[in-house]
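Milestone M4 deliverable, item 7.
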Amino acid sequence: VVLRLFGLLLTSLAAWYLGYFVAAHVPQNTISIAALQEIGKKPVLRAPAPKRQKCDLWSPCPPGNFVYRILSGGGKQRRPKICFEDEDALYCEKRCLAVLFWLFCYSSHMCCYDSTDHSREMMDFIRKAPEGTLLLMATHDDGSTRLKHDAKKLVEKLGSKEIKNIKFRSSWVFIAAKGFKLPDNIQKEKINHSDQTKNRYKGWPAEIQIEGCIPRNLI
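Output delivered:
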């Protein structure tokens, strides 16, 4: 019995000494309870935050391209917007017939024409725009009622297939080129008519947009 007690005491002393040795020589931060809890957990993969593109496009344009985004007006408070090379080329305080932004030798100009009595001014603007011009247009409220036939015909010559189909409060956006041809693979025009059964806003159709990339060497 004495030998058993002596053996038990010796074993206890050995275990205490081993624990003391480990505690004294192993760094405190080597193993922690938190680290032990992490063992066996599946790693959580987090996707990096998406990088913002120019004009808020979903995907970036290739190098050597201009970036554009045209948004029509919608409802009384949602004004049309034109973004070009990540700069807001348009902020129109009033309801617009069409907005034109032209680029030539890296200079720009923007005009906003009300459909009441400015069809002639809009036509003069288009005619005076130099070769190598981009024309970006959008409507807000009504771009049809008082838009003169000659003005519609001039926009049609720029390549519009919908300008003569614009109805009361139709949402319409269009991009055209003067003096050169735009790529065939970009969307150049879009229209959305007012429909009381489908309108997003009371008496107003939803706003629409087109966006894309234009090679700089075309201009």
